[in-house]
Each structure stands twice: as structure tokens, then as C-alpha cells.
Design goal:
With 370 residues, the protein is α/β, with parallel strands linked by helices. It contains 14 helices and 15 strands.
């Protein structure tokens, strides 16, 4: 595997590029499967996973099956992926995304192989769901939440805010009602308007001021309910942070399998790989688009990811990784920033919640020192 550092952990992401119907706001690669495509895809995916295991020959640190909608495969097919992914050893965490309409008690067949389920609830308001172009109702979502609260898995619920025509009261109600089912983890984020999606053709964003209001009030409520704001869009109870996503945010090593999935390997200088851009290409070739990042590009990526978290940059780790002193490198640029947006001591530099609202500006300011 190009650029793989065998001395450091490596995680696995598996992309399932199928959805029964694509949501109006979604820009991730997925489509409705044609007859026979699911089993054809699974066979090729398992062959590719076998090749990866032979090359790295170490257990995966974490595993994440995402999409698309992995639930469309059915739990027996998912089980085959999980068994193969754990052949070399049990990962610290195994997560699967699943749409509410595909969640049922059959998921118990994955006990012992699966630790965590991430479900795209988004809202319990039917009007908001219609605006998003979601293809489930609040009733479907509530049934999924009721089931999740009884299952022996850790779980996450996604909540989208700042949806056109949505009120602040609706967002706060969503948070209160969803957290009443006691998820260990909440992903809470603003609706993003992506190019070439049906949503952007018929709706307009609510505006930055309203987005900030929705976020700040939502953050305040989640904090009051015992959820720690450990990453810009993610909250968890103690011990419930998503280990797989922390690999991304710490710019660790991960391998992505499936159309449009990305990989990042290495340490001081990362190698980034992207899989084929469509399912048709995946069926015909397994070629990766490989890009080698130099130290400056790797450092910029490090800023982009680590500063999303409340832990921020560990200065000793930064010195080890880039062979230079963080304070000497960035102090001049840090002095330009609003002192109310960050925390900085001898060991760590991190943004606070006020800084999360202007994170792009902070990263751009600091990156000028690279």
C-alpha cells in the first residue's frame, strides 16, 4: 500500500454507494442499485479487502461502514464485510451507518462484530423532513429511536439544523426529543447547500446570522444535557466519542474502499488516494488516483483537521510530526486572532465554541505561516 507506515495504526472505511432514493440535499456519491449490482459489488469489495489485508497484515484500528445507505445491503451481507474486516484482529471500534427505515431487530445478528450504529434521524418534524427531501417520516424516525434505545450497541443520531422555514423552536425540540432516547453521541450540524443537488435549485440558505443563532442555542442545549462538544459538529457523553472519526481529525492513517472513498497513509508526509469516481468504473478497474503531499501540504491538512476538535493541537505531537516548534511557527499569526476565540498554553492550542463559528478564518490565518 503506497505510503503506508506500518509503525502506526490504520483504520478502514467502506463505502456502500447505494440508496433506495437519494435525498435532495445529499452530494455524496450514491445511486439506486440495478438488478444484481449489490451482490456484484459485495464480491468485488470483499476481494479488494482481502488484497488490502495481505498487504498491511495488521488489524484495523477502527472500521466504519458508511454510504449511501449500508442498510440497503441487508445485515447478512454486512456481516460478511465485518467478518472479513476483523480477520486479523478485533478493532477498537466498528461502526455502521443505517437509515431509520432499514433498522430492525435483525441487526442483532451483528452482535460481537458491531459496536456502534449511526442513524440519520435529521429531524422529528415532518415539514423539515419534506424540505430536506428525506424519504421517511417522523413516525419512522421515532420507531428507529425506540429500537435503538433497546439495542446492545452504542449509537449516534444525526440532527440537521438551519433548514429553510425551520424555526429555532423546532431545532431545540428535535434535540430534546431525540436525546430523551439517550444516545451516547449526537452529530449536530447546519444544512449545507451543495452544487447540483435538487435542494439548491428550490431553496435558499437561511443566512450566516441565523445559522449562528441555531448553532449556539443548539450547542448550549446539548451541553446542558450532558453532551460534550468535542468536535465542531459532534457531541458525546463521557466515553462515547467516535474513535473512527477521531482518526480523521488527528490526521491518522485510514484506507477507503469503494467508489469515491479516500485513503490517507503516512505521517510526516501523507499519501492521499481516491478510489474510482463511479460504480461503473469500480466494476471495470480498481485503479486509485494517488497524490503525494509534501510536508507543507501535510501540515496544512493537519491544521484543517485537528483544529476542528476541542483538544486542538498537541504541541509535543506537532514537534514530533513536523520537527519544529509550534509557538515559534505560529505565534505571530496567533496574535492577530481574537483572544476570545482560542485557548493557548505551553502544551496545547485549541479553538473554543466562539472560535468554531469562525474556524475557516482561524485556519486561513494560521496557514499563512506554513
Amino acid at each position: 500500500m503506497v505510503g503506508f507506515d506500518s509503525s502506526r495504526p490504520v483504520s478502514l472505511y467502506v463505502h456502500i454507494p447505494f440508496c433506495k432514493v437519494k435525498c435532495d440535499y445529499c452530494a455524496f456519491y450514491s445511486r439506486c442499485p440495478k438488478e444484481g449490482e449489490i451482490d456484484k459489488y459485495l464480491s468485488l469489495l470483499l476481494l479488494e479487502l482481502e488484497a488490502v489485508k495481505k498487504e498491511i497484515n495488521v488489524p484495523f484500528e477502527t472500521v466504519f461502514i458508511g454510504g449511501g445507505n449500508p442498510g440497503i445491503l441487508g445485515f447478512e451481507r454486512i456481516k460478511k464485510i465485518l467478518v472479513s474486516a476483523q480477520e486479523l484482529g478485533r478493532p477498537k471500534e466498528v461502526t455502521m451507518e443505517c437509515n431509520p427505515e432499514n433498522l430492525n431487530s435483525d441487526i442483532l445478528s451483528l452482535s460481537g462484530l458491531l459496536d456502534r450504529v449511526s442513524v440519520g434521524i435529521q429531524s422529528l418534524d415532518d415539514g423539515v423532513l419534506r424540505t430536506l427531501g428525506r424519504h421517511q417520516t417522523s413516525e419512522t424516525n421515532i420507531k428507529a429511536l425506540e429500537l435503538l434505545s433497546t439495542l446492545p450497541f452504542r449509537w449516534n443520531a444525526d440532527i440537521i439544523t438551519a433548514v429553510p422555514s425551520e424555526s429555532l423552536e423546532t431545532t431545540l425540540s428535535d434535540i430534546k426529543r431525540i436525546t430523551s432516547y439517550n444516545p451516547g453521541h449526537i452529530s449536530f450540524y447546519c444544512l449545507t447547500f451543495e452544487e447540483d443537488t435538487p435542494l439548491i435549485k428550490r431553496e435558499k440558505p437561511v443566512g450566516e446570522d441565523k445559522e449562528s443563532e441555531f448553532l449556539l442555542r443548539g450547542w448550549e442545549l446539548l451541553n446542558s444535557l450532558g453532551y460534550s462538544h468535542y468536535e465542531v459538529s459532534n457531541f458525546s457523553k463521557e466515553g462515547e466519542e467516535c474513535l473512527h472519526n477521531k482518526v480523521y481529525w488527528n490526521l491518522g492513517q485510514y484506507i477507503g474502499l469503494g467508489p469515491t472513498a479516500e485513503s490517507a497513509l503516512g505521517w510526516n508526509e501523507m499519501t492521499v488516494m481516491r478510489n474510482t469516481e463511479s460504480l461503473e468504473e469500480y466494476f471495470s478497474t480498481h485503479a486509485f488516483n494517488v497524490s503525494k503531499l509534501n510536508k507543507e501540504e501535510t501540515e496544512e491538512s493537519y491544521l484543517l483537521t485537528t483544529l476542528r476538535t476541542n483538544k486542538g493541537i498537541d504541541k509535543e505531537e506537532y514537534r514530533e510530526r513536523f520537527n519544529k516548534d509550534f509557538d515559534s511557527t505560529y505565534q505571530e499569526r496567533i496574535s492577530i486572532l481574537d483572544k476570545d476565540t482560542y485557548f493557548n498554553d505551553t502544551d496545547r492550542f485549541a479553538v473554543n465554541e466562539k472560535g468554531m463559528l469562525v474556524l475557516d478564518y482561524i485556519i486561513l490565518t494560521l496557514s499563512m505561516s506554513i
